[in-house]
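So, can you check this record?

>
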Amino acid sequence: MKVLVLGCKGQLGLCLSDQLENTAHEVVFTSRDHIDINDFDATKSRIFEISPDVVINATAYTAVDKAEEDQETANRINHLAVANIAVACNELDCWLIHISTDYVFDGSSNVPYKEDDQTNPQGVYGETKLKGEQAIQSSGCRHIIIRTAWVFSEYGNNFLKTMLHLGAERSELRIVGDQVGCPTYAQDIAKTIVTILESLKCKEFMSDLYHFSGNFGCSWAEFSQLIFNEAERLNIIKNKPKVATITTEQFPTLAKRPAQSQLNSNKLKAIFEIDPSDCMLAIRSSLTAIKNETH
Protein backbone atom coordinates (compact mmCIF):
# COMPACT_ATOMS: atom_id res chain seq x y z
CA MET A 1 0.00 0.00 0.00
CA LYS A 2 1.07 3.56 -0.64
CA VAL A 3 0.95 5.47 2.63
CA LEU A 4 1.21 9.24 3.10
CA VAL A 5 2.23 10.39 6.59
CA LEU A 6 1.45 14.03 7.39
CA GLY A 7 3.49 15.49 10.24
CA CYS A 8 6.55 13.25 10.13
CA LYS A 9 8.66 15.43 12.46
CA GLY A 10 6.27 15.36 15.40
CA GLN A 11 6.31 12.86 18.25
CA LEU A 12 3.91 10.41 16.58
CA GLY A 13 5.39 11.05 13.13
CA LEU A 14 8.86 10.02 14.31
CA CYS A 15 7.42 6.88 15.91
CA LEU A 16 5.58 6.08 12.68
CA SER A 17 8.91 6.36 10.87
CA ASP A 18 10.38 3.79 13.30
CA GLN A 19 7.45 1.39 12.96
CA LEU A 20 6.93 1.65 9.18
CA GLU A 21 10.63 1.31 8.39
CA ASN A 22 10.62 -2.46 8.01
CA THR A 23 7.21 -2.89 6.39
CA ALA A 24 6.51 -3.51 2.71
CA HIS A 25 4.46 -0.32 2.38
CA GLU A 26 5.57 2.48 0.11
CA VAL A 27 5.66 5.36 2.57
CA VAL A 28 5.85 9.07 1.78
CA PHE A 29 6.80 11.07 4.89
CA THR A 30 6.00 14.77 4.81
CA SER A 31 6.63 17.58 7.28
CA ARG A 32 5.26 21.11 7.22
CA ASP A 33 8.06 21.97 4.76
CA HIS A 34 6.53 19.54 2.22
CA ILE A 35 2.82 19.80 3.00
CA ASP A 36 1.58 22.67 5.17
CA ILE A 37 -1.98 21.64 6.00
CA ASN A 38 -2.74 25.33 6.67
CA ASP A 39 -2.57 25.84 2.91
CA PHE A 40 -5.74 24.04 1.86
CA ASP A 41 -5.34 24.20 -1.92
CA ALA A 42 -1.68 23.17 -1.89
CA THR A 43 -2.45 20.33 0.53
CA LYS A 44 -5.17 18.88 -1.70
CA SER A 45 -2.95 19.28 -4.75
CA ARG A 46 -0.05 17.41 -3.10
CA ILE A 47 -2.32 14.62 -1.82
CA PHE A 48 -3.73 14.16 -5.34
CA GLU A 49 -0.21 14.20 -6.76
CA ILE A 50 1.01 11.50 -4.33
CA SER A 51 -2.26 9.55 -4.73
CA PRO A 52 -1.92 7.35 -1.62
CA ASP A 53 -4.03 4.38 -0.58
CA VAL A 54 -3.97 5.67 3.02
CA VAL A 55 -3.32 9.09 4.55
CA ILE A 56 -2.16 9.10 8.18
CA ASN A 57 -2.72 12.49 9.77
CA ALA A 58 -0.18 12.84 12.58
CA THR A 59 -0.46 16.64 12.67
CA ALA A 60 -2.35 18.64 15.28
CA TYR A 61 -2.39 21.83 17.30
CA THR A 62 -1.67 20.33 20.74
CA ALA A 63 -0.82 23.40 22.87
CA VAL A 64 -3.85 23.01 25.13
CA ASP A 65 -3.51 26.27 27.05
CA LYS A 66 -2.27 28.35 24.12
CA ALA A 67 -5.34 27.25 22.16
CA GLU A 68 -7.52 29.26 24.56
CA GLU A 69 -5.83 32.45 23.35
CA ASP A 70 -5.18 31.39 19.75
CA GLN A 71 -8.56 29.87 18.94
CA GLU A 72 -8.43 30.71 15.24
CA THR A 73 -5.18 28.80 14.63
CA ALA A 74 -6.29 25.83 16.75
CA ASN A 75 -9.55 25.61 14.82
CA ARG A 76 -7.82 25.97 11.46
CA ILE A 77 -5.37 23.10 12.15
CA ASN A 78 -7.55 20.74 14.20
CA HIS A 79 -10.81 21.28 12.34
CA LEU A 80 -10.76 23.10 9.00
CA ALA A 81 -7.50 21.61 7.73
CA VAL A 82 -8.69 18.14 8.77
CA ALA A 83 -11.97 18.70 6.91
CA ASN A 84 -9.93 19.66 3.82
CA ILE A 85 -7.81 16.49 4.07
CA ALA A 86 -10.97 14.37 4.49
CA VAL A 87 -12.52 15.87 1.35
CA ALA A 88 -9.33 15.09 -0.60
CA CYS A 89 -9.36 11.50 0.71
CA ASN A 90 -12.99 11.11 -0.29
CA GLU A 91 -12.30 12.37 -3.80
CA LEU A 92 -9.35 9.96 -4.09
CA ASP A 93 -11.30 7.12 -2.44
CA CYS A 94 -8.42 6.49 -0.05
CA TRP A 95 -8.46 5.79 3.69
CA LEU A 96 -7.78 8.46 6.31
CA ILE A 97 -6.34 7.44 9.68
CA HIS A 98 -6.67 10.34 12.09
CA ILE A 99 -5.61 10.81 15.73
CA SER A 100 -7.94 12.50 18.22
CA THR A 101 -8.00 12.99 21.97
CA ASP A 102 -9.56 12.19 25.34
CA TYR A 103 -10.16 15.94 25.76
CA VAL A 104 -13.39 15.62 23.77
CA PHE A 105 -14.90 14.45 27.10
CA ASP A 106 -15.71 16.58 30.15
CA GLY A 107 -14.24 14.21 32.74
CA SER A 108 -17.45 13.68 34.74
CA SER A 109 -17.65 9.90 34.15
CA ASN A 110 -16.74 7.49 36.94
CA VAL A 111 -15.67 4.80 34.45
CA PRO A 112 -13.38 4.81 31.38
CA TYR A 113 -15.01 6.40 28.35
CA LYS A 114 -16.29 4.30 25.46
CA GLU A 115 -16.48 5.50 21.87
CA ASP A 116 -20.21 6.20 21.95
CA ASP A 117 -20.22 8.09 25.27
CA GLN A 118 -21.45 11.68 25.21
CA THR A 119 -18.75 14.19 24.23
CA ASN A 120 -18.55 17.56 25.98
CA PRO A 121 -15.15 19.25 25.53
CA GLN A 122 -14.23 21.79 28.19
CA GLY A 123 -11.71 23.81 26.18
CA VAL A 124 -10.81 25.05 22.72
CA TYR A 125 -8.35 22.21 22.07
CA GLY A 126 -10.93 19.49 22.78
CA GLU A 127 -13.65 21.41 20.94
CA THR A 128 -11.57 21.82 17.77
CA LYS A 129 -10.45 18.18 17.85
CA LEU A 130 -14.09 17.08 18.14
CA LYS A 131 -15.03 19.28 15.18
CA GLY A 132 -12.21 17.60 13.24
CA GLU A 133 -13.69 14.18 14.02
CA GLN A 134 -17.14 15.32 12.94
CA ALA A 135 -15.79 16.82 9.71
CA ILE A 136 -14.17 13.49 8.81
CA GLN A 137 -17.36 11.56 9.60
CA SER A 138 -19.51 13.87 7.47
CA SER A 139 -17.04 14.01 4.54
CA GLY A 140 -17.92 10.55 3.24
CA CYS A 141 -14.27 9.44 3.19
CA ARG A 142 -13.25 6.01 4.43
CA HIS A 143 -11.72 6.62 7.83
CA ILE A 144 -10.38 5.28 11.09
CA ILE A 145 -10.35 7.81 13.95
CA ILE A 146 -8.26 6.87 17.00
CA ARG A 147 -8.75 8.78 20.23
CA THR A 148 -5.77 8.53 22.54
CA ALA A 149 -4.51 10.21 25.72
CA TRP A 150 -1.52 11.53 27.65
CA VAL A 151 0.92 10.68 24.84
CA PHE A 152 4.61 10.30 25.68
CA SER A 153 7.77 8.86 24.12
CA GLU A 154 11.50 9.43 23.73
CA TYR A 155 10.73 12.05 21.06
CA GLY A 156 9.47 15.61 21.13
CA ASN A 157 8.04 17.49 24.09
CA ASN A 158 5.94 15.49 26.52
CA PHE A 159 5.28 14.92 30.21
CA LEU A 160 7.90 12.20 30.64
CA LYS A 161 10.69 14.34 29.17
CA THR A 162 9.55 17.38 31.14
CA MET A 163 9.68 15.37 34.37
CA LEU A 164 13.20 14.16 33.58
CA HIS A 165 14.33 17.73 32.98
CA LEU A 166 12.68 19.15 36.12
CA GLY A 167 13.71 16.15 38.22
CA ALA A 168 17.36 16.79 37.42
CA GLU A 169 17.04 20.41 38.60
CA ARG A 170 14.82 20.24 41.68
CA SER A 171 14.58 18.20 44.87
CA GLU A 172 10.80 18.56 45.11
CA LEU A 173 8.07 18.90 42.49
CA ARG A 174 4.42 19.86 42.94
CA ILE A 175 2.33 17.71 40.58
CA VAL A 176 -1.45 17.61 40.11
CA GLY A 177 -3.03 14.54 41.67
CA ASP A 178 -6.75 14.97 40.96
CA GLN A 179 -6.70 14.52 37.18
CA VAL A 180 -6.72 10.87 36.08
CA GLY A 181 -5.95 9.47 32.63
CA CYS A 182 -4.18 6.66 30.78
CA PRO A 183 -0.60 7.48 29.72
CA THR A 184 -0.02 6.14 26.20
CA TYR A 185 3.25 5.38 24.40
CA ALA A 186 3.49 7.02 20.97
CA GLN A 187 5.44 3.99 19.66
CA ASP A 188 2.45 1.81 20.58
CA ILE A 189 0.06 4.19 18.80
CA ALA A 190 2.32 3.86 15.74
CA LYS A 191 2.35 0.04 16.06
CA THR A 192 -1.45 0.10 16.31
CA ILE A 193 -1.65 2.11 13.09
CA VAL A 194 0.67 -0.36 11.32
CA THR A 195 -1.54 -3.26 12.47
CA ILE A 196 -4.61 -1.45 11.18
CA LEU A 197 -2.86 -0.83 7.84
CA GLU A 198 -2.22 -4.56 7.48
CA SER A 199 -5.86 -5.29 8.30
CA LEU A 200 -7.14 -2.74 5.77
CA LYS A 201 -4.99 -4.41 3.13
CA CYS A 202 -6.39 -7.87 3.85
CA LYS A 203 -10.04 -7.35 4.83
CA GLU A 204 -13.00 -5.09 4.29
CA PHE A 205 -13.60 -2.77 7.23
CA MET A 206 -16.21 -0.13 7.90
CA SER A 207 -15.21 3.42 8.79
CA ASP A 208 -15.22 3.76 12.56
CA LEU A 209 -13.99 5.48 15.72
CA TYR A 210 -11.78 3.71 18.28
CA HIS A 211 -10.09 4.38 21.60
CA PHE A 212 -6.47 3.36 22.23
CA SER A 213 -4.59 4.19 25.41
CA GLY A 214 -2.42 2.85 28.21
CA ASN A 215 -3.48 -0.21 30.19
CA PHE A 216 -4.16 1.56 33.49
CA GLY A 217 -5.25 4.91 34.83
CA CYS A 218 -3.25 7.16 37.13
CA SER A 219 -2.91 10.80 38.12
CA TRP A 220 -0.17 13.10 36.83
CA ALA A 221 1.49 12.84 40.25
CA GLU A 222 1.41 9.03 40.14
CA PHE A 223 2.69 9.05 36.55
CA SER A 224 5.61 11.27 37.56
CA GLN A 225 6.46 8.92 40.43
CA LEU A 226 6.52 5.94 38.06
CA ILE A 227 8.86 7.87 35.76
CA PHE A 228 11.23 8.83 38.58
CA ASN A 229 11.30 5.30 40.03
CA GLU A 230 12.25 3.84 36.66
CA ALA A 231 14.72 6.64 35.88
CA GLU A 232 16.46 5.97 39.20
CA ARG A 233 16.57 2.24 38.49
CA LEU A 234 18.16 2.91 35.10
CA ASN A 235 20.68 5.36 36.65
CA ILE A 236 19.36 8.24 34.56
CA ILE A 237 18.88 10.35 37.68
CA LYS A 238 20.92 9.99 40.86
CA ASN A 239 18.42 11.33 43.37
CA LYS A 240 14.76 11.26 42.48
CA PRO A 241 12.84 14.32 43.63
CA LYS A 242 10.06 14.24 46.17
CA VAL A 243 6.65 14.48 44.52
CA ALA A 244 4.16 16.65 46.40
CA THR A 245 0.59 16.05 45.22
CA ILE A 246 -1.48 19.19 44.64
CA THR A 247 -4.99 19.89 43.38
CA THR A 248 -6.04 21.34 40.04
CA GLU A 249 -7.18 24.41 41.97
CA GLN A 250 -3.63 24.89 43.25
CA PHE A 251 -2.26 24.73 39.69
CA PRO A 252 -4.52 26.99 37.61
CA THR A 253 -4.24 26.78 33.82
CA LEU A 254 -5.90 28.68 30.98
CA ALA A 255 -7.65 25.53 29.73
CA LYS A 256 -9.86 23.37 31.91
CA ARG A 257 -8.70 19.73 31.95
CA PRO A 258 -11.06 16.76 32.39
CA ALA A 259 -10.76 15.32 35.91
CA GLN A 260 -11.19 11.74 34.68
CA SER A 261 -10.44 10.97 31.04
CA GLN A 262 -9.51 7.29 31.03
CA LEU A 263 -10.37 5.57 27.74
CA ASN A 264 -11.83 2.10 27.30
CA SER A 265 -9.87 0.34 24.51
CA ASN A 266 -11.97 -2.87 24.37
CA LYS A 267 -13.54 -2.13 20.98
CA LEU A 268 -10.15 -1.85 19.24
CA LYS A 269 -9.04 -5.11 20.85
CA ALA A 270 -12.22 -6.86 19.73
CA ILE A 271 -11.96 -5.72 16.10
CA PHE A 272 -8.19 -5.64 15.49
CA GLU A 273 -6.89 -7.83 18.36
CA ILE A 274 -4.71 -4.98 19.62
CA ASP A 275 -3.98 -4.83 23.35
CA PRO A 276 -3.81 -1.52 25.22
CA SER A 277 -0.36 0.04 25.58
CA ASP A 278 1.70 -1.51 28.42
CA CYS A 279 2.44 1.67 30.35
CA MET A 280 5.23 0.36 32.59
CA LEU A 281 7.06 -1.26 29.68
CA ALA A 282 6.56 1.97 27.70
CA ILE A 283 8.10 4.14 30.44
CA ARG A 284 11.09 1.78 30.55
CA SER A 285 11.44 1.77 26.75
CA SER A 286 11.27 5.56 26.51
CA LEU A 287 13.79 6.11 29.29
CA THR A 288 16.16 3.47 27.86
CA ALA A 289 16.02 5.15 24.44
CA ILE A 290 16.72 8.54 26.02
CA LYS A 291 19.61 7.10 28.06
CA ASN A 292 21.16 5.44 24.99
CA GLU A 293 20.84 8.68 23.02
CA THR A 294 22.75 10.66 25.64
CA HIS A 295 25.74 8.30 25.77
